[in-house]
Amino acid sequence: MPKVIYELPDGTSATVDVPVGTSVMDAAVNENLPGIDAECGGSCSCGTCHVHIDEAWYSVLGEPSDEERELLEFTAEYCERSRLSCQLVVTGECDGLRLTVPTREG
């Protein structure tokens, strides 16, 4: 099972075994990780599952859809490595995937 490493807003990290076919968001919610609120439940409509993908992994995950990209532009801490974790489905190639959950103001 692929391991995903979440760098959390408080500076700690969590390594989670994520079944292939599961979204990065669902894995975080199942583990009660802080910072990924997932208010829309994974429908790509709220931006509360925003993460920064480690540069080494960005190309493995592919480009965001136009819908995802438009929503990301309105998230706090937006950068060129921003993605919505609800749109990132884990494959066998994702073992060791590293991402950062940005601090959210509010």
Topology:
Layout: E1 3-7, E2 13-17, H1 24-30, E3 50-53, H2 58-61, H3 66-72, E4 82-84, E5 97-100
Parallel strand pairs: 1-5
Antiparallel strand pairs: 1-2, 3-4, 3-5
Work out the helicity level: 10-25%
Strand order of the largest sheet: 2-1-5-3-4
Please, how many helices?
3
Tell me, rounded to a whole number, the average pLDDT. Answer: 94
Q: What class do helices, strands and sheet pairing give?
A: alpha+beta
What is the CATH architecture descriptor? Answer: Roll
Element pattern in H and E: EEHEHHEE
InterPro entries: 2Fe-2S_ferredoxin-like_sf (IPR036010), 2Fe-2S_ferredoxin-type (IPR001041), Adrenodoxin-like (IPR001055), Beta-grasp_dom_sf (IPR012675)
GO biological process, one term: P450-containing electron transport chain
GO molecular function, one term: metal ion binding
Protein name: Ferredoxin
Brief overview, please?
This protein is an alpha+beta fold and 106 residues long.
